[in-house]
Amino acid sequence: MTARFTGKTVLVTGAGSGIGRAVALAFGAEGASVVAAGRTTASLDETVALIEKEGGSAAAVTVDVTRSEEVRTLVRRTIEHFGSLDVAVNNAGVFRGGAPIADLPEEDWRTLLDINVTGVLLSLQAEVAQMRDQPTGGAIVNIASNLGAHSRTQGLAGYIATKAAVSALTRAAALDHIADGIRINAVSPGPSATTMSLRPGETDADRAVRMKDAVPLGRVSSTAEIAAAVLYLASPDAASVVGSDLVIDGGASA
């Protein structure tokens, strides 16, 4: 394992489980000080404990990304903990679906917009405000989805619309702030080894059988594989990568 992020501070939202936790652990393993952010204290504490168990440094901060004051406080507490904000990964998101758009509950639509889109916008604003005042700038990776700008499916119009918005917002923000020394990119996962890709009542084994035909690769992506893509985009290896949207979906949207 390399130590590409030694001396760097990384903020990860939605870090209490799934892809967010995998990303936080991967940064911790490569030397970063990690702020694990999200709504649930217990799950964030578990992420911090896993990082510290491997000799890393981490802190947990609870936040509601739909509230601008809380997001600004999150960035301020990141600086208080570790002195800088070098990388931010905006992973917090929710999934709602299962009905045609004509039957999509308004409450679900507003929840999707608030968390998946406004939450990313508010996070970007707070993170950029800090990074552009730092001599070293920073890197931001937003977590979108292969459902959105890259592919569509029935019954998920609300989720698809919000994740397409994340892809577009990422590219626009990248153009706005590269002159500030901030690189902004996105990762768009497809079906991955998280509960979000499980259908109601489906087991991991059931999903594995379904994925053999549903995805060209024949399986879901591991959270570690998605985390590896995030770390690449945040690393010096991607120094000239600006406004990209890296799809990790086993060929599902090829």
Topology overview:
Layout: E1 9-13, H1 18-29, E2 33-38, H2 41-53, E3 57-62, H3 68-82, E4 87-90, H4 106-131, E5 138-143, H5 157-177, E6 182-189, H6 204-214, H7 223-234, E7 245-248
Parallel strand pairs: 1-2, 1-4, 2-3, 4-5, 5-6, 6-7
Which tags fit this structure?
alpha/beta; single chain; 43% helix; Rossmann fold; 254 residues; seven-stranded parallel beta sheet; globular; 7 helices
User: What would you call the structural class?
Assistant: alpha/beta
Distance between the termini: 31 Å
Shape: globular
Uncertain spans = none
Question: Could you write a compact summary of the structure shown?
Answer:
Helices cover 43% and strands 15% of the residues.
Structural account:
The chain is of the alpha/beta class and 254 residues long. The protein has a single domain (9-247), classed as 3-Layer(aba) Sandwich (Rossmann fold), CATH 3.40.50.720. It contains seven helices and seven strands, in the order E-H-E-H-E-H-E-H-E-H-E-H-H-E. It has a seven-stranded parallel β-sheet with strand order 3-2-1-4-5-6-7, with helices on both faces. The chain starts with 8 loop residues before the first strand and ends in a 6-residue tail after the last strand. The relative contact order is 0.14.
